[in-house]
Fold Cytochrome b561 and DOMON domain-containing protein.
Amino acid sequence: MASSSSSPSCLIVLGFSIWLLLFLPALSLTCTSQKFTNNILYSHCLDLPTLSSFLHYTYDSSNTSLSVAFVATPSASAGWIAWAINPTGTGMAGAQSLVAYKDSKGVMTVKTYNISDYSSVVQSELLFEVSDMSADESGGFMRIFGKIKLPEDLAKAGKVNQIWQVGPSVDAGTLGKHDFLAANLGAKGTLDLSGAQTGVVTDTGASNLIKKRNIHGILNVVSWGILFPIGVIIARYMRPFEGMDPAWFYLHVSCQLSAYIIGVAGWGTGLKLGSESKGITYSTHRNLGIALFSLCTLQVFALFLRPKKDHKYRFYWNIYHHGIGFSILIMGILNVFKGLDILKPEKKWKTAYITVISVLAGIAALSEAITWVVVLKRRSNSSTKPSN
C-alpha cells in the first residue's frame, strides 16, 4: 500500500517541476505587452527567436520608410545591442547596423556601423538614409528607435534580411566581441515588410540547435537539479520517523529513478549536441555530466545489491550509498549552474532556480533540526526506561 500511495506524490512533484520549466516561459514578456515611454505605436511586432529580443516596426510603402524599435538585453551591464539590415547577404558582412550603448557619461546613444567585413567593425555612415535615431534603457532592456529609408530594390522585394546581436562592452566606440553561441549565431532572419509573418524565418539548423540545447537544459535541471535533491531530502528526513517505513523508501526510490531516467535523456541530448557542435567544447560541463551518469548508474545497480537491515555488510553498503548519493547531489547542482552559464538564458530563470534550491536547502535545514530533536528525544526516553 505504501508503494501505491507514495509514487503518485513523487510523480506530482515531477509533473509540477516540468510544468514550471515548460509552461512558465510562455508567460514571459512578449512584444505585445511592451509599451514605450515616447508613446510611439507600431503596426507590427515580433518575438525574435534568440537572445530574448523583440522587434516593433511600421513600413510606409508610400515613401519606402521602415520605422523600427528594437528591444534586447545586452550580455553585460556595460554592453551593447544592435539591429541591422543586410542588403547583400544574410551574415554580418555587409550589415547596415544601428548600435545602442551607454557613452562615457552613462547616457544611452545610438551609432551607425557599416560592417564592410568581419575585421572592420567601426562607426561609419550607412548606405541607407537614417533618421529619428534614439535609445533608452529600463527594466534591464535597451531599446533602439530609428527610421530607415529603404532603396527601391529592397522595397520591391517586400522582404529584408535582418540581423540582431548583443555584446558585453564598448571601448571608445569599439564594440567588444559578442559570444559565438548558437543563440548568437542564429540571430538572423527574413523580415516581411507587410507584417504578414507571425514569426521570423531563420536559419533552420541554428534554430534546431537552440531548441535541442533548451531541451537538454530543461531535462537536466528537472532531474539533477530538482528531483534528485528532493529524493535525498525524503530519504534523510522521513526515515527517522516511526510509521513512515516503508513509505519513505518507495517515495525515495520513485523520485530517484525518475531523476535518473530524465537525467539519462538529458545526458543523451548532451552527447548529440556535442557531436553536432564541432569545434565547441565545454570540458568541465561535459566531464561532470559523464561522471554524473556513471555514478547514478552505479547507484541504480546498487539498489539490486542492497543487503537486509540485519546483514553484516549493510553498514558498508550504507556508507557507499550515502557517499555516492551526496556526491551526485553536489555535482548535479554544480553542473546545472555550469549549464546555465553556457546557455545564458534570461536572468530570471537562473534566479528562479537559485530560489528553488534555496527553498529546498531551507527545508533541509529545518528538517535536520526537527530530526535531531526527535532522535535525541527517542534516545533519552530509551535510556530512562528501567531495565530488567
Remarks:
- The radius of gyration is 27 Å.
- The first strand starts at residue 44 and ends at 47.
- The helical segments are 2-23, 152-157, 182-185, 204-238, 247-276, 283-303, 314-343, 347-384.
- The chain has eight helices and 13 strands.
